[in-house]
Amino acid sequence: MKIRFYLLFIFFTLLFLFYPGDSYYFHLFAYNRPLFEKKTTQPKININPVPYLKNPFVYPEISAQGVYIVDLASFTPILKRNEHSDFFPASTTKIITALVSYDVYKPDQIITIKRTISDGQLMGLVPGERITVENLLYGMLVYSGNDAAYVLADSYGYAKFISLMNQKASSLGMKQTHFVNPNGLDAYSQHVSPFDLALAARELLKNEYLAKIASTKEITVSDVDFKYFHQLNNVNELLGEIPGVGGLKTGYTDEAGQNLVTFYKNSGHKFIIVVLKSLDRFKDTANIINWINANVDYVNYQ
After folding, report:
1. Which of 41-50, 119-128, 193-202, 212-221 has the lowest mean pLDDT?
2. Which of 10, 86, 143, 301 has its CA at 20 to 30 Å from residue 187's CA atom?
3. Domains of the chain, residue spans
4. Helix-strand-coil percent breakdown of the chain, rounded to 5?
5. Residues 10/15/17/21 CA torsion (nearest 10 deg)
6. Which CATH superfamily is domain 54-299 in?
7. Which residues, in sequence order, are bridge partners of residue 221?
8. For residue range 174-202, what is the model confidence (pLDDT) as tens digits?
9. Is the pLDDT confidence value at 1 over 90?
10. Cβ-based neighbours of 198, under 8 Å, separated by 6 or more
11. CA separation for the pair 83, 193 (Å, rounded)
12. Lowest mean pLDDT among 50-54, 108-112, 179-183, 186-190
């Protein structure tokens, strides 16, 4: 009897609990849909303001044969000329040399100069000098020292370093770029496009350490034994003369002409300006900056 009683008790208890009538439990499960719905949150998409030309028929007066001007945040091109054509890079090569050096060395690592070169712009390194990688980077990015670039490559293993330069360029999407030396001295098979240099500049600007070096107007560096001192003045004549210019890299050879990659900030917006094979790289870039200030505005789609 007791077993029968307990069975009946359990039956009626469950019946009252789950009978689909107007009970509390029925309402709890039948009408509380949010309890069973999977909560999803819409991802917030940040859309950078997009630049546009207030007057698309007005262009800056420039002599450069290769030009690529891009808004950094959205990487939207503002002006381009022969942007996918091949040019001799000259010392703009050192943007990639700096990126590879940052990958393979530590800034405080000491390199003993075993051999150097005497071609073109030199910071004045001498055999036997012991100098940090950081000071070599200053010599290369500020003063555009060909000897600094050579030492950074040679101390790692020249052929291996050049291979890493081309691997770095490929990883950045620089499809029309090929390097055969670390300093940009003219070589028939060494070439780059304005678009590719903008990609390289964007990568360097992501690195606050290298970007700071590239924006340095002047500095004196020494070897670790304080025997040799090198006064380094930035080759970029616009740095410190035009507000908003923050480097980035010059370049010149007879074959390349005058090259300049510039980082420019204006009213919270950032730009990369590439001019290649120019007759006057600084005048061209100054004209471009004036044109940006007067003719570029933004649309915000958020």
Report:
1. 41-50
2. 143
3. 2-35, 54-299
4. 35, 25, 40
5. -170
6. DD-peptidase/beta-lactamase superfamily (3.40.710.10)
7. 230
8. 999 999 999 999 999 999 999 999 999 99
9. no
10. 68, 70, 261, 272, 274
11. 6
12. 50-54
Kindly provide the b/e burial profile for residues 244-272, where b requires at least 16 CB atoms within 10 angstroms of the residue's own CB.
bbbbbbbbbbeebbbbbbbbbeeeebbbb
- When computed from its CA atoms, the radius of gyration of the chain, rounded to whole angstroms, is 31
Q: Where are the beta strands (DSSP E) in 2-126?
A: 50-53, 66-71, 76-81, 110-112
Residue 135: how many other CB atoms lie within 10 Å: 23
pLDDT recorded at residue 14: 58
Give pTM, 2 decimals: 0.84
